[in-house]
Design a protein that fits this description.
Order of helices and strands: HHEHHEHEHHEEEHEHEEHHEEHH
Distance between the termini: 114 Å
Helix content: 40-55%
Largest sheet: 7 strands, mixed
Structural class: alpha/beta
CATH architecture of one domain: 3-Layer(aba) Sandwich
CATH superfamily of one domain: NAD(P)-binding Rossmann-like Domain
CATH class of one domain: Alpha Beta
Number of strands: 11
Length: 335
């Protein structure tokens, strides 16, 4: 059984950048999905899109592996799966211990993705005596008193810490002293380790806080956009909105609102500007009377000439018919 203690990963001796190493599992996951669908080859653009990276970056990453693909054909899927798996050390068995079997530790123990990538959960360890012997994911929980013996007997080099923050450093020290050289830390604290020990930290609350930052920034940008629109004067009755309203009112068949400086006289007729006197006022009033017919051209009666308004059935020509006390034609004809 390989323990992984006697050698360092091949990526270090070959000088592969850590950023590239971090992307290799993304490529492997995308390639595995293609392999399961029996896809023989894949282009760099297609694989980059599936992995969520830039295609130029993908080609650069693969150049560190000595894999350049074939022009016009792409990359061989099965060969890349093997090549990346070998580079990541997934072609051998890696026994792992999980320390801290609370809700998170139990969930990790039940995660099937470990076994599919060559990580075998060798032991579950917890400090609670009442947990000893209880099976989780088919594996009996063992007390922390047995930690060193378990690591030695199973050749463990990778440990997972899922304890509360206060206990994490002590557990880490014991794991390192027993021979563990790689630690995956789920505890919300920073671990201090000696040279030669690798630690990867997973803090779900930090990830959520980063998402909250981006959400707040997006909300702030939306609020600033609304305030900027308000400062540009986009208010009801002014600016662009008012212009749209004027055009809509002037559309064929739509009622035309009277100008802002119109007023209604005592008889209910609407006139514009200042009040008129004499025949001019009477003519305008008669032209705007509700009894006046609309002109044949479809113009509003209020804009038609007095002669045109008087040509309809029952209308009286200017200067004839009944007159008001002051000699002018009444604004509203008697019923």
């Amino acid at each position: 059984m390989a323990t992984g203690r006697t050698h360092r990963p091949a990526t270090r001796s070959r000088g592969i950048p850590e950023a590239t190493v971090a992307r290799l599992p993304l490529y492997l996951r995308a390639l595995t999905a293609l392999s399961e669908r029996s896809v023989p080859t894949v282009s760099s653009e297609e694989l980059a899109a599936a992995a969520g990276v830039n295609s130029a970056k993908l080609r650069k990453d693969f150049s560190y592996l000595g894999s350049y693909g074939t022009r016009g054909v792409g990359y061989d899927v099965e060969y890349l799966v093997y090549q990346i798996s070998r580079e990541l050390g997934l072609t051998q068995d890696w026994p792992v211990v999980i320390v801290g079997i609370g809700n998170l530790g139990a969930a990790l123990a039940n995660y099937g993705g470990f076994a599919s990538r060559g990580f075998r959960v060798a032991a579950l360890i917890d400090a609670d005596p009442s947990m000893a012997g209880k099976p989780v994911a088919g594996i009996p929980v063992q007390h922390t008193d047995q930690l060193e013996t378990i690591i030695h007997d199973n050749g463990v080099s990778i440990g997972v810490i899922a304890t509360p923050a206060g206990a994490a450093q002590q557990v880490c020290d014991r794991l390192v002293a027993a021979g563990v050289t790689s630690i995956l830390n789920f505890a919300p604290t920073v671990l201090s380790v000696p040279e030669g020990v690798d630690v990867r930290k997973v803090d779900l609350s930090i990830e959520l806080q980063i998402l909250a930052f981006h959400e707040q920034r997006k909300n702030g940008e939306e609020r600033e956009d609304r305030e900027e629109r308000g400062e540009r004067g986009e208010r009801p009755g002014t600016g662009e909105g008012a212009a749209r309203g004027t055009v809509a009112a002037a559309a064929p068949g739509a009622p035309v609102a009277p100008p802002a400086d119109t007023f209604a006289d005592a008889a209910g007729a609407v006139t514009g500007g200042v009040p008129e006197s004499g025949a001019g006022a009477a003519g305008a009033a008669a032209a705007q009377s509700p009894d006046s017919p609309q002109s044949p051209q479809g113009h509003d009666p209020g804009t038609a000439a007095p002669e045109a308004a008087a040509t309809g059935p029952g209308a009286t020509a200017p200067g004839t018919g009944p007159k008001g006390p002051d000699g002018d034609i009444p604004a509203v004809m008697p019923a």
